[in-house]
Amino acid sequence: MRKTFITTLVELARKDDRVFLITPDIGYSVLEPFMKEFPERFLNVGVAEQNAVGMAAGMALSGLIPYVYTINPFVCMRPFEQVRVDMAYMNTNVRIIGVGAGFAYGSAGATHHSIEDIAIMRALPNMTVVCPGDPWEVSEAIKASLNHVGPMFFRLSKQGEPVINNTKTQFKIGKAIKVRAGKEVHIITTSNTLEIANNVCEILKQKKVSASLISMHTVKPLDVKMVSELLKTKKPIFTLEEHSIIGGLGSAVAEVIAESDFNPLFKRFGVNDKYSHYVGGHDFIRAKFGITKENISKNILKLIGKK
Amino acid sequence: MNHRSNASHSGSALSIVELLTVLYFKYLNIDPKKPKEEKRDKFILSKGHASSALYATLAERGFFPKTFLDKFYIDNGILPGHVDMEAAPGLECAAGSLGHGLSLGLGMAVAAKYKKLKSKVVVIISDGELNEGSIWEPLLLAPHLKLDNLTVIVDYNKIQSFGITNEVINVEPLGGKLKSFNWHVIEVDGHNMTEIENALNEKVAQPKFNIAHTIKGKGVSYMENKLEWHYRSPNKELLEQANTELQ
């Protein structure tokens, strides 16, 4: 995803001279294409995230469109008050790009994991929260960011994610994508669990359960219309995210369901309010938290009364 | 304003009156009729709690009617205690949480250089604000980027929220610190308008750090150098006394 990000940003920068890239000293072997082509629009501001976001807001107030790139917790939590005041309150056109959704930084440890970011960013008025599920969504969302008014948070995974979407689909910020149609259960996912959710649908299909799959790439504003459509079918709804079950996609969907006229079977799959103290790679830690196609499909089948 | 609204920070506002007067009437290239003009100079009051002084200066300079000042810090008001950039014309950014304004100003200075504009950026910070870690990040970066279009003025009134500045955390030697950070350091009497103007007009190839020695509550005998005037607003009698002394 990070390679797709930088490739797309280079394309944007070729078209629009307001595009700027700021990094607090992260991006080795990723950001070089932009650095080389647009040295006058690239700034490594040193290991200083508060200043990176604050000065980006100053640049946005001067008409530029700065993208601030670093590891996820260091772009939305370390400089949180700059994000709140200088981006959200002042409604500036700053884009913060957090790389390393969920446990993507695996063995690096929990300082580099990100399981609270969606909840925190979602609470900010004016903030748009985009969590692409595959490289195609990254590319489309970054392109759409050029003309978006207001601050944006992008939650990127890291590397090697396959394209799941039909790339001929129309992409729009705030409009969820129906990746698979299905009649018996609905699975809504966001960010880097799109591939797992797709595999869950395959397992369910083998078990003769028809599941629809929704990629909710924009968690804020949530596509309430899409959730409402699913609710009208009165079928079970499941959410999946590599994020705490508190405050993320599952919570956002739960809020819509709770205020609706419907009461479907509903379950949030995600990180159950715990930090990882495990040592291991991305998939190893995912498995420890039950974020695997096998565990989730097993739980869904059990919840709907099938084996 | 502070009397009418029962607002705090009277002393913090009075220490920067001469600084704002020189900036808005002698130094900044601004046009109150075109507050969004791209080529304008920009001023940021990072010590947003002294907003009443900024609002009064902007009204005097013609950015908005003086009637706005009657709507400070009250129900159904216009001007909040800490700066909301949407409140009135001429406010470049929000302010109130300390340690934000210098990074914003640095970004504006970088943008001006990139756009090849001659705009200057001036940021007033408070001495207590130097305690904030986020102030030192742009203090490191601005000289590295050789931003000769950026001036920082520290309102060195020597009293902060809960004590004497250099008893809370000693910032001295302040000038020495900033010189070693490669800033062009100038010290002035922050109530002497000629000294302030001369310092602003110094032309150097690095960012300028102007240490303005000021008096908290300047001009009002019962407020001068008194910590309590970080919080209090004058009652009717004290207001009359202050007005007499200030005239």
From the structure above, extract its key features.
heterodimer; A: 307 residues; alpha/beta; Rossmann fold; seven-stranded mixed beta sheet; 12 helices; globular; B: alpha/beta; five-stranded parallel beta sheet; two-stranded antiparallel ribbon; 7 strands
Number of strands of chain A: 12
Q: Return the string of H and E elements of chain B.
A: HHHEHHEHEEEHHEHEH
Summarize model confidence as the mean pLDDT of chain A: 98
How many DSSP H or I helices of chain A?
A: 12
N/C terminus separation of chain B: 16 Å
Description of the molecule:
The complex is a heterodimer of chains A (307) and B (247). The model of chain A has no long low-confidence stretch (mean pLDDT 98). Helices cover 37% and strands 19% of the residues of chain A. Chain A has 12 helices and 12 strands. Chain A has 307 residues and is of the alpha/beta class. Chain A folds into 2 domains: 2-156, 3-Layer(aba) Sandwich (Rossmann fold); 177-303, 3-Layer(aba) Sandwich (Rossmann fold). Chain B has 247 residues and is an alpha/beta fold. Chain B has one domain (2-89, 101-246): Thiamin diphosphate (ThDP)-binding fold, Pyr/PP domains (Rossmann fold, 3-Layer(aba) Sandwich). Chain B is 36% helix and 13% strand. In chain B, helix 3 runs parallel beside helix 4, helix 3 (17-27) crosses helix 9 and helix 5 (101-114) runs parallel beside helix 6. The longest helix of chain B is centred in the middle third of the chain and has 14 residues, at 101-114. At the A-B interface, helix 3 and helix 5 of A face helix 5 and helix 6 of B.
